[in-house]
TrEMBL record:
Pfam families, A to Z: Tom22
Family stated for the protein in its record: Belongs to the Tom22 family.
Family matches, as CDD domains: TOM22
Species of the source: Senna tora
GO CC annotation: mitochondrial outer membrane
Lineage of producing organism: Eukaryota, Viridiplantae, Streptophyta, Embryophyta, Tracheophyta
InterPro entries for the chain: Tom22, Tom22_pln
Renumbered residue ranges of the record's region Disordered: 1-34
Name used for this protein in its record: Mitochondrial import receptor subunit TOM9-2
Ranges of Low complexity composition bias in the record: 23-34
Membrane topology: Single-pass membrane protein
Transmembrane segments: 60-77
Length: 107
């Protein structure tokens, strides 16, 4: 069995006139071309800008988050306490039978 050749495969004829050195020199010419070097430079610049953008966005998110926690959250808590106090006073006033504070009577 091991002596049998491959089955079902198609083998292509060898290219005449092209040696390994010629093919590798073409690849090296392409990889050293100005277009490839500009592409590499553009990719490097894009990576640098993306890194800077993500870093500055992270800093801005940190500043916004801490500012919200320090300034806005206590304000929300205090407004909620004030609302609860107003509701409690209104409930006590209705239970005690005192008239609710409203607009003055019209003449």
């Amino acid at each position: 069995m091991a002596s049998q050749g491959r089955r079902g495969g198609v083998s292509l004829p060898d290219r005449s006139g092209h040696s390994k050195n010629e093919q590798s020199s073409i690849i090296s010419k392409i990889s050293q071309s100005q277009l490839v070097s500009r592409g590499k430079q553009a990719a490097g610049d894009a990576a640098f800008v993306t890194k800077k953008l993500l870093k500055s966005t992270g800093k801005a998110a940190w500043i916004a988050g801490t500012t919200f926690l320090i300034l806005v959250v206590p304000l929300i808590i205090e407004m909620d306490r004030e609302q609860q106090l107003n509701e409690l006073e209104l409930q006590q006033a209705s239970l005690l039978g005192t008239p609710s504070v409203g607009p003055p009577p019209q003449k």
